[in-house]
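Worked example

This section walks through a single chain of length 388. The input is the sequence exactly as stored; nothing has been trimmed or padded.
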Amino acid sequence: MQSDVAIVGAGPIGLAAARAAAQVGARTLLLERRPEGAPPSCCTGLISPRTLSTLHVSDSSVLQQIHAICIHLPSGLEITLRSDDVKAFTICRRTLEAELLQNAREAGASVRFETEVTAAASGKLSLRSTRTEEHITTSVIIGADGPRSQVADWFSLDPPSAFIAAAQVELEGAFAATDQVEVFVGERVAPGFFGWCAPAEDGVARVGVGVLPDHSPAMFLDCLLARHFPNHRIRSRSAGIIPLASSPRPAAEGVLLVGDAAGHVKPLSGGGLYLGGTCAQIAGEMAAQATQPGAALTELASAYSRRCQEAIGREQAFGCSIRHHLSRLKDEEVEAAATVLQDRQFMQFLADHADIDQFHRLPDHIASEPHLWTTLLRIIPFLGLSSG
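Given that input, the structure is written out below as tokens.
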């Protein structure tokens, strides 16, 4: 069997890449070891409204509209930012994947579930399914197979340079608000990252914790549940690792990594559907174009890396810088910085202008509001930004 573009991994990013490649006209084969309709991986399902258009899907997967965030500080103090605008959605990941699968198939991609890729070399894949073992040839391989990417291993590509370990539960019970996300911070709450509570269906929320890889996320999650959600019933549990930085080398000749496999995520939150979806479109289109007569396949890797950097590099660089400074703060420094942040004008400005996909634009917004500069200058020492 022969294809132009073979994609390993049929999560949202692999499905988006398959659609993009097939639309250009490439013979596109998408391979997934899970059965069709299998439960999705650990995912909070919090996205920006623009993510839907980036993935070319409808709003059928939307569960809740988010207008506010409540930050729980180590001392118990709460800071709430609320906007009249819809700042985010929570979604049903299974519904999202079903629509993405339909879109990929309608574009002309062939999708094979319960098919494991067991080996890969230049232009060749070995497959094993419940029925048979076989070998296929392809011009371009796209690895959309997650943070522990086998495709990256086979072609000696670099993994994402930073990870956190995460655990999450779906809880049933009564929650304060369905239009608000809660965030829990502190060295004893979630070292190196944060905890979260995001509303899903009515009466259901996703509660999780991310921690540094040398800690146990399950232990910190149990502590968070005991303290804040003692009377709620656990409906399901999931766990995984989340990349927080991009791969230094996400492509080689005839091979592209995309999504979590390439670290196409937001360093401040670990969210990957918007940045990953942006790069999936690039990967699918460029892979398909590289298979056309007269195209130079040898230039694909460098061109792909450059396009992704242009599309998401500024947001990732800004997020990594802020995350680096925030991760060094002690709890008392977080409390002190939060006290400064409670300036009413500044809080409302953040609520209205902060964008979960484009935090790198925030300094430009602040620069256009001179009345906020005094508050900002009081925060800078806590972040250590004055020394570079």
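What to look for: DSSP finds eleven helices and 18 strands in the chain.
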